[in-house]
Amino acid sequence: MNTKQLKTLYKKEIMDVIRDKKTILTMVVLPVILYPLLFLVVMQIMTMILSNQEEQTYYVAYDKVAEQDQKALEDWIQGDEDGYDYVIETKTSKNPKKDLEQEKIDAYITTTVTDEQVIYEVHYLSAVTDSSSVSDMLKEEITSYSKKVAEQNADALGLDVTKVLYPIDSKITDQSSNESSMGSLLGSFIPFLLITGIMTGCMYPAIDITAGEKERGTLETLLTLPIGNLELIISKFLSVATVSIVSVFINILSIGGIVFYLFRTVMSLTEGAGAFRLATFVPAILISIVCVIAFALFMSAVVMCICAFAKSFKEANNYITPLTLIVMLTAYVGFIPNVELSSVTALIPVANICLLMKNLMVFKYNFTLILVVLFSNIIYAFVAVWFLSRIYDSESILFGESFSGIKLFERRKNIKKGSLPTIQESILILIVALLLMVYAGGMMSLSYPLAGVIVPQFFIGVLPILAAVYIKADLRQVFAIHKPGVRNLIGAVILVIGAASASLLLSNVLSYFFPENSGSLNESYLNMLDGVPFVAALLLIALTPAVCEELLFRGYMFTAFRRKMSLSKAILCVSILFAISHMSLIKILPTAILGAALAYAVYVSNSIFTSSLMHFLNNGFSVFLLYYGDTIPLLQNEQAGLPLVVCMVILAVVCIPLGVRLLHRTESTQ
Amino acid sequence: MIEARELTKQFVRTLKKGKKEEFYAVDHVSFVAEQGEILGILGPNGAGKTTLLRMLGSLMEPTEGMVVVTDKDGRQMTAKSDLKRHIGYLSENTKLYGRFTVREMLAIFGELYGFTEEMCKEKIQWICNLLDMGEFIDNRIEKLSTGQKQRTSIARCLIHDPDIYIFDEPTLGLDIISSKAIIDFMKQEKERGKSVLYSTHYMEEAEFLCDRIVMINKGCIMAVGTPQELKEQTGTGNLRDTFFAFMEGGAADEHKAVENAL
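Above: the input entities. Below: the structure tokens describing the complete assembly.
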């Protein structure tokens, strides 16, 4: 390597990047001004809400409450010296229920009186902030009043108040040091902020130095020089890494400033309740800095790899968006309880840095894991740089046509009619659908288990249709909406019997080797379908996926892959993506086999209906077994294992070739 | 002197249904550009001019064949970095670094050609006087006018004082004054004994400027010769008609024409 050239190139890249206003903006302005500003605004709003609440006067009405009970409580509320600033005033009301609804009063109280007890009942509106806060206050007041009266009564009877009323009490004491409780608080969000900071810090220089240079047309000028590819890549990489590391430090300083301020405020509020030594954090901070630098190197290289495919700033921005999403979601791991740094998580990029810093903040030093995190990041960085050098060696990327883009990011009026989907688009749709599935589906399934099945399927089905409409594609062509023909349908049915048998065989073999993973799925389905009639279950588990999943996988995605790949490659890729998106490691191979059969059927018959039918039959059979499996004596017979296996082997061997033979090529109608 | 030996570039294009097709952007092209000669490369859009010149400038790797440069002392070289040191390459795609001043950019390029700081300063001073760039040499390039940028581009090619210039459509889209600057520069360098390889589709410009012309179409040479020779061969009055005559001659006469020319 020519170090003199490297030095000159590095100087050139740094100068070029630093003179770009956007870099300065993301590197300096964002962390130095925006973070503290954001923080101050949030603080201000919080104190405003708090002080508002404290000084407010709340109005409470009493509804048919005996005079002495009302007066007693009023006196207690008035006379109580509890240090709060709020005022609770009594307001007479003829129709308290109506007044509460119209928010003329914040709550009203009724009583139920028995011989032993007076029960005060507070009526409030949980949806109204003032009403819900006054209800809490009233509850507190009534409890303390009740305690007071109880004590008085006990005393009057000549009893030992403590012994009778409070023979047992509870107390909790936090044994963690002030530093570690502070650390665990910071450990969850500081890694997230830092990773976002690194990401934004290296994004603009990376785009500028790769796609930006191509767009401005200076790359070809640079290539006329007698410089090596290695020097070029390394100088570019080092420049981006330098900028991102500098921006990390600015980030750390800015966050550090905020934390220090926060900590001073807390100290002054608690009047130095615990001595707090910042020095305890020094080793943690030093190790974090080393690891964060390694991470910045890795991130810079990855971002540059992606940007290198782009021809322009805008295009590079589009490619980076999904990466940002993935990095942010992974960085979110710090907020999830119970996910700890282990020998496995230490190897996952992004997550390892997050978890390591979380550990360091609470003074857990596991030096083996620290080294694993450090070296895995350095190794990933090397791999990414190597990949980058390959990209920069490729003439088709340097001089060639634009890397076939994602039309979804373009304006619709610029898209030509009859466009066809691209692989990138279909994968983007899959990722978005999966994310929606995890978040929206997960949330729904908490309250409505069945909706947890329907909602994700809905996304899987609707997103490709929306995308196809957006790119002005011919829907019949993209989704292969053509008449299948009777012969093809029969072939499809026979093929799916064979493929399902093969898939079932394989999954049985796999569950023999990995027994801990099997069966759980069936149980969860059973729980979910508890009380659902068979026909409804059939619609849910069989028909919906047969429509929605086919639209995405055998429709949009298969069309996209077929445009760029040979038949076998396209079937392979789509089936694997189909299997992966079922999110069960052990089911990947069996599902892929089914996926391949479905894709083949669509290819040959040129009709999505064949694969829909196959998908419906396969899932429907599972539902049938789930409901009526125990009524079939053969399946209950312990001895029947071997004959069943033989039966499935025969079905697979006979039906697959027969189905393939029956399916015949229908030429596209166009 | 620069020589193209059987230069070939094959590209793969993706057709429908994932089928790939190989095609020749440049198909076994050989010629020599002598010292003190302006050699014009003529051809329609998509003929393979840019690919050919990129290979000659070592920006692209040929699929087959090689580029040989012979320096004043008769030494032959083929290594990429040696070739680049002897070639000044200028095309519509070689833009300038807008965020640098002219002086900064020339200094960086000088250093990358391996000159010391002192040498760079001397060379910049020499070029500054030669191209009369004194009034804007310390301005940022993005603030310069088109003409000033053009002169800076020439200065960029000149910084290592190469023996060979490769200009890919240098006058495309320029006004009369700016293109005159380029043309004057090419003539002047020819007088200094340099080889100038130059592609264009302005026939008139080529006719009065070039010592010899290589006509290419679809990656193949159709004809080689002085403008006069080519016109006589086809019996046409000007180069534009000559060009069309060769185009219509097509593939059948192509081989013969090349043979005649050689």
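Note for the figure: The radius of gyration of chain A is 33 Å.
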